[in-house]
Amino acid sequence: MGTPEQPGTMPFVGIPSFLKLPIVPEGGATGHDFTVVGIPFDEGTSSRPGARYGPRAVRAASTLYSYEGGAELFDVELGRSILKGASVVDSGDVAIEPANGDANRDAMTRRIRGIVAAGSTPVAVGGDHSITASILKAFPAPPYLVHLDAHMDFDSYLPRHTHGTPVRLAVEQGLVAGVVQVGVRGLNNGRADWLEARERGVTVVTAEDYRLSGVDAVLAAVPSGAALYVSIDIDAFDPGIAPGTGTPEPGGLSYVEGRAVLRAVAGHGRVVGCDLVEVNPLFDHGEITAILAARLLLDLIGAIWEARIPRRP
User: Fold this and answer.
1) Domains of the chain
2) pLDDT at res. 159
3) Exposure pattern of 34-56 as b/e (b: 16+ CB <10 Å)?
4) I need a labelling partner for 189 at 20 to 30 A (CA). Which of 63, 183, 196, 263 fits?
5) CA–CA distance from 217 to each of 1, 194, 264, 265, 289 (Å)?
6) Exposed (0-12), middle (13-18) or buried (19+): which is 235, by Cβ within 10 Å?
């Protein structure tokens, strides 16, 4: 398996970086197309902690796709390879210090800003969803936010820096050019916040809306060719396939539905960064949530890469 240049190994052998790809130090993103960075922070959780262990779990799960070595993977359903020719590296984690909220948030912003300045696309693995607001501060121009989640994260009843508030913060601070949310459902989205979000230009595509209208409901709200940032909360997916999260909600997206959104969005705009958050291995079963998360990231960065280059066999 693998090639002489990039030998493949069994998933259980070696250091479990993301996809067992090269590890580079902080500041080593120059010359690489995608840079994975872990943000093991969950002090913004409102109920079940444990998402700080998400980056480790997702990295370990990603090794299931490392048999052949390298980032290039053949997708039998597409009938072609993804990430062919792409340079993808893992830059380790942002150094998080317990109970040092402002310093931690500044560290997140600095790390992502360095990756962006190096010309690489940041792929952040959380951690709770509060990290997204700090990440968005790193971009020189506000991108359009595509947000997959069971919740609007526009809460007015939670403290300012929690996993229920990053979209509110992003809108209030002008960190985004616009917002479309996909998969919203359940009983933890307040009516007043829902109304305010819509008044402030947030497009909410509920899980039921998506099932009725598909990706068209999402793309209609996203300017074609715009700079996009994609944030995936794993609780956008049904707890039957993603039990390992802090705030699960029945009725979520299937893997195929979520993948369709990611592929469509990547081909519709210019994705400048992404994150996947809220994987909580303390509540996972058989690592199925972490495996789903790893696959979604590979699907997304593969689609981003295909949008940048001519399609290759």
Assistant:
1) 18-308 (3.40.800.10)
2) 77
3) bbbbbbbbbbbbbeeebbbbbbb
4) 263
5) 42, 18, 11, 11, 26
6) buried
Instruction: Classify residue 102 as exposed, middle or buried by CB count within 10 Å of its CB (0-12, 13-18, 19+).
Output: exposed
Distances 45 to 42, 48, 160, 252 between C-alpha atoms, Å: 6, 7, 12, 20
Contact 251, 209 (CB under 8 A): no
pLDDT of residue 201: 95
Q: Is the dihedral of CA 236, 240, 242, 244 positive or negative?
A: positive
Backbone angles phi and psi of 234, in degrees to 5 = -65, -20
Q: Which residues contact 175 (CB under 8 A, 6 or more apart)?
A: 133, 136, 137, 139, 142, 169
Token readout for 50 is: 């444990």
Residue linked to tokens 């936010």 = 145
> Running along the chain, 313 residues long, what does each successive block of 10 average in pLDDT?
58 94 95 98 94 98 93 94 96 96 97 98 97 98 98 87 93 97 93 94 96 95 95 98 97 98 97 98 97 98 92 52
Count CB neighbours of 203 within 10 A: 19
* CA-closest candidate to residue 215, choices 173, 168, 183: 183
214 burial via Cβ count (<10 Å: 0-12, 13-18, 19+):
middle
Helix and strand numbers (H, E) in the chain are 9, 10
Q: Is 176 helix (H, G, I), strand (E, B) or coil?
A: coil
Spatial strand order of the sheet with 270-277 comes to 88-93, 34-39, 121-126, 270-277, 227-233, 144-148, 178-184, 202-206
Residue 97 structure tokens? 């210090």
Give the pLDDT of residue 1: 46
Please identify which residue in the block is written with the tokens 């944030």.
231
In this prediction the pTM is 0.95
Q: What dihedral do alpha carbons 242, 152, 272, 264 form, nearest 10°?
A: 70
* Cα gap 43→188, rounded to integer Å: 19
Question: E strand or H helix at 271, and its extent?
Answer: strand 270-277
